[in-house]
Amino acid sequence: MTTHLVWFRRDLRLHDNLALAAACRNGAARVLALYIATPEQWAAHDMAPRQAAFIASQLNALRTALAEKGIPLIFEEVKDFAASVNTVKTLCQQHEVSHLFYNYQYEVNERQRDAALESALAGVVCEGFDDSVILPPGAVMTGNHEMYKVFTPFKNAWLKRLKEGIPECVAAPAPRGNGTFSASRPIAFSYPQLDFDATLFPTEEKAVIARLRHFCKQGAREYERLRDFPATEGTSRLSASLATGGISPRQCLHRLLAEQPQALEDGPGSVWLNELIWREFYRHLMTYHPQLCKHRPFIRWTDRVQWQSNSAHWHAWQEGNTGYPIVDAAMRQLNATGWMHNRLRMITASFLVKDLLIDWREGERYFMSQLIDGDLAANNGGWQWAASTGTDAAPYFRIFNPTTQGEKFDRDGDFIRQWIPELRGVPGKAIHEPWKWATKEGIKLNYPQPIVDHKQARLETLAAYEAARKG
Fold first, then answer.
1. Does 7 qualify as catalytic in the annotation?
2. Looking at 7, 42, 339, 360, which residue is catalytic?
3. Mean pLDDT of the chain
4. Which one, 77, 288, 320, 455, has least CB within 10 Å?
5. Residue 435: active-site member
6. 466 tagged catalytic
7. What is residue 1's predicted lDDT score, i.e. its pLDDT?
C-alpha cells in the first residue's frame, strides 16, 4: 500500500490545508500525519510560552479531528530543526513512505531545514505548497521582476492579480477507509508554557471558523471605525490562529467576500482586507530579503544609529512603568495576556525606539517572547516600520507623542484604568498626564513620573538618526 506522510508545522487545521488535501487525494493511500516539537529551536526563535501552550492545545484538538478521519498523528520531540530532518527520514524509512507533503515556511532556518530534508530523502517524493499566503511569493512583482519595496504599489498589484483568479479553499479530507483512532494521552512539550484565555483565543477549528464568520458578518463592517480604540472590541482576534495556521488567509478572504462583497472595491470590509494584504506583503518581503530574518534593517544606513543602553529605561518599558499611561497599560496587557492591540503595538514600539532610543531589535525579540500571535514576518515588519528602518517605513522624523496618542485613542482613559489600577482614581482626561493632576490636588500617586521628557527625547532621537544618515 502506498503511504503518504503529512508534516504539520504552522498549519494546524483540517480545512483548506493544501498539503493535507494533496496527501488525501489518492483514496487508496495510507495517510499518516506528523508533528515535531523543537524546543531548543523555539527558544532560539524566542517563542512565547503562551504561544507554546496555544499550539499544544491546537495540536491535541487536531489529533482528535484527524483520528476521526482515520489519520493517526505521530508526535515527536527533538531539540532543533537539524534533528527534525533525521526524525522525518527515519519515519519515512520505518513506514515505507513514498510521498512527503508539507506547507512551505518562508523564514531562513525553516527553508534551510526543508532543503536539507529534500536532499536527505532519496526515493521519497517531496511536495510543498504555498499555504500560508493567498498569493504565493513571486506572484506579485514589479515590471523589472523585483519585489515591491513600498506597500501601496504592492497592494494595487496584488489586488489586480487577485481579481484575475481568487484561489479556492480546499475541503477537509473525507474519512479514510482504515477506520478511526482513539487519541492516547495528551500531547505535551518540554517547553515553558503559560495559560491563555481560550475564550479569546479558541483552539478547536470549529470555534475558530465560527469566530471568523461572526467577525466578517458584523465586525468587518465596523472595523475601520473601531479598530484604533483598545477599550473597544473592534478587532477580529484571529491573529493567533493565523500565526499558527489554525485558519488560513484564504478562508479569511472567502468569508469576508461572502459577507462583504464590496471589500475588493474599497467598500465595507476593505480595511480589514488591507490588514490581510499587509500580512502578505511582509511574508513576500521576507522571502526575497532573507536578511530580515537575521536582525538586519532594510534601510542599511539605520544600522549606524547609536542606540542607548539604559537598563532602567528598558525594564521600565518592559514592566509598564514609564510614566506614560497608554504605553504602560499596553505593556501590562501584553505581559498579562500575551496579546496587544495593534494601535498599541505601534505606540509602544515608537516609544521604545524614538523616546528611549533603544535598539528596535530588543523590542522585536521581547514582543516575540510574549505574543501568543508571534509571527516573525509581521512582528519584524511592524518593528521596522515603527523604527523607520524598514521598507515602507514611517520617515524617521515622524515620532509619536505618547500623551497625545493616549488622548486620541483612549480619550476617557477606559483602557488605561483597566490595566493600571493605580490610576483609577484619576478623573476624566487628566489620566493622560496624571502627575499634573496629582500635583495640583496635592495627592501622591503610586505611579511613576515620566522617565523621559518627550520633547527632549524627540530632539535627541532626530539628532541620532540624522548623524547615522550622514554617515
1. no
2. 360
3. 96
4. 455
5. no
6. no
7. 79
- Using CA atoms, how far residue 2 sits from 5, 31, 36, in Å, is 10, 9, 23
Residues 116 and 141 in one domain: no
Choosing from 301, 342, 401, 407, the catalytic residue is 342
Give the integer Cα–Cα distance in Å for 261 and 221: 11
Do 87 and 227 sit in the same domain of this protein? no
User: Could you tell me if residue 186 is inside a domain?
Assistant: no
Which pLDDT score, from 0 to 100, does residue 178 have? Answer: 63
Distance between CA atoms of residues 178 and 463, nearest Å: 69
Cα–Cα distance measured from residue 281 to residue 150, given in angstroms and rounded to the nearest whole number: 9
Point out the catalytic residue in the list 158, 317, 383, 385. Answer: 383
Write out residues in the chain with pLDDT < 50, as ranges. none
The reply to whether 279 sits in an annotated binding site is yes
Q: Is 373 annotated as contributing to ligand binding?
A: yes
Report the CATH number that the domain containing residue 326 is assigned in CATH: 1.10.579.10
277 annotated as a binding-site residue = yes
Q: What pLDDT, in 10s, does the model give residues 6-21?
A: 999 999 999 999 999 9
Q: Is 278 a catalytic residue?
A: yes
Q: What is this structure's pTM?
A: 0.96
Using CA of residue 413, residue 417, residue 422, residue 427, what is the dihedral sign?
positive
User: Domain range holding 397?
Assistant: 300-470
Specify whether 307 is catalytic. yes
8 is in an annotated binding site: no
Does one domain contain both 275 and 311? no
276 and 146 in one domain?
Answer: yes
10 Å Cβ neighbour count for 115? 11
